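Need tokens for this chain, all 149 residues.
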Amino acid sequence: MTPAAGSGDRRSGLGFSFLALVGLAALALPRVILHDLHIIDEGDVINWVLALGPFAVWIAAAVVKKVPNAFLTVLVIGVIFGVMLVVTHQLLWDAAFQGDPPALGDSPAALIIPRVAAVFSGMFTSALTGAIAGLVAWGIQAAARRRAV
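Here are the structure tokens for all 149 residues:
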């Protein structure tokens, strides 16, 4: 059943509206901000909760909603989060490095190269974690379907 025109329910083939996908991705943003501002540290329990909790929510949302393709849906959430992560890291770059950003020498590009590398690294890592979480969601859905038979 497709939504009526103008109904406001514009779900994509991913099972969620774009706004819902962005909202799910944004759940992972607090850890990025708190970490870049040095409010939480790597070993803190709250860091682990904020790091892993959003992925659990992404998986649960895809499974409970019974999205058509859990892997793809959660992968897309991961990519959207990647954009948020990269933008946040760039905005908080000076705070994250406490005024001593990484540099590769003394040339004008010395400060730019690490920032560009951070963009690719952030996008790759977020897409990879989205793919892994998507595989978990897909596996749970497949197991549930087998159980239902």
